[in-house]
Design a protein that fits this description.
Order of helices and strands: HHHHHHHHHHHHHH
Number of helices: 14
Shape: globular
Largest sheet: none
Helix content: over 70%
Distance between the termini: 68 Å
Strand content: under 5%
Number of strands: 0
Structural class: mainly alpha
Amino acid sequence: MRRALQAALFFAAAGVALAFLALPVFAIFARVPPGRLVRLLSNGIVTDALVVSLKTTLLAEALILLLGTPVAYLLATRRFPGRVLLVTLVELPLVLPPAVAGVGLFAAFGRSGLLGSTLDAFGLQIPFTLTAVVFAVTFVASPLYVRTAIAAFEAVDPDLVAASRTLGAGPARAFFRVALPLAGGGLAAGAALAFARALGEFGATIMFAGSLRGVTQTLPLAIYEEFSLNFDSALAMGALLVVVSVALLLSLKLSLSWQPSRRTSVSLFARSS
C-alpha cells in the first residue's frame, strides 16, 4: 500500500511538472487558430522583425563558429597558467544578466565608451545599428558554443591526433582531418544551442541596439512591442519562435546521435596523406 502511494505521488508530481511545461506552449497555439496565425505572420511588423532576426542571427552564428572554434580547441588541448581564468571569462556571459551585458557593450563600443573615440575617428557608430544587434547576440550566445566545443574537443582521443602528427600531418591538417570530424557532433550541438540563444536574445539587444523597426527590431523585441498593442500578433510571432525552437531541438538530438567513428576519421586522414 505504501509503495503504491509513493508511486502515485511520484507520477502525480511528474504529471504536474510536464503539464506546467507544456501548457504555455499549447496555449500559444490554442489561442489563435492555425489559419489566423498564418495570416498574422504576413503582417509587415512580423516580416520585418523576422528578416532582422534571421540576418543578425546568421551573421552572429558565422562569427561564433569562425572565432569560437579555434578558441575552444586551444582551451581544450593546452594547459597553461591562466587557462582557468580564460575559461571563466568565456563562460561569464552565461550568468551575466542580459541588461548588464547590454550596458557593458554600450560602455565598450558606445560613443563615450572605451573604444568609442577610436571608432568615431573611423566614422563608425555601432549602437542602435544592425551591427549592434550582431554584437549583442554574439556576446550572449557564444559561450554556449564555445563551452560545448571545449567538451567536444576534450573528448577526442589525443593519441589519434598524435598519430596523425607522426604520419607527417601538420597542426592544421591534424585539426581539420582528425580532431574536427571526431568533435563534429558536439560542435553541431553547440552551434544549434548558440543559434537558438541568439534568435531569442532580448535584454542585451534592447539595451545596446534599441528596437527600431526594420533596423534593429528582432522577433523577441517585436513580441514585446506588440504584446500591449496586438496580442494576437505577439502570439503569432511566439508560435513562429516555438516552431523554430522545436526544429533546433530536433536537429540537436540528431547531431548528438550521429558521431563519426574514430576508424572513419583515421581512414580519411590516411587517404589524404
